[in-house]
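Question: Now follow the chain.
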Amino acid sequence: MTLPPSDGPSDPDGPGRAEGDDGPGRAEGDDGPGRAGRADRADRADRAKRPDRPDRPDADRQLPYQVAVFARRICAAGELDRAAFLLLEQLAATGPAKVKTLAAALGVDSSTVTRQAAPLLRERLVARLPYPADRRAVQLALTPLGAGRLAQVRERRRELIAELTAGWTTRERAVFCALLARFNDGLLDRR
């Protein structure tokens, strides 16, 4: 299996960037507006403190760090945090569902789903509906606004991943996807 090279534009030790060069049109310390600025600052902090590069022998120590960096960066690419994204994805996949059902599907407590749903309800991305079998019970449902936001975030994430893997071969992308799926399946098995 051939892994993608670790040196590149995002690697401070790699080609294409001089020390202190924050990219085209950016002065040192200019983080730009909003979320992108925070993501840029976080990226620089990651590069400054990251442990040995993955091409070095200590990949077991490196893997948890790289997974955490990936999770933070992919969330920064959209406008939803990880929990909100997963909850909206679950509702999109299954349709309206009771909190207990969502909690079981996501591998969390019902109280966690209730807490995660609160901002989505306020933003009208999710709505409470009566449960057909028991009018006293409620279920959560994705609203048209929520479906639209989810579609936007999915597209941004697809674009980011396509950009990040543009230099990879089809085989490298397939191997990465298979290994990531195996990793995620292992996490599911631990529930």
Observations:
- The mean pLDDT is 77.
- The first strand starts at residue 126 and ends at 131.
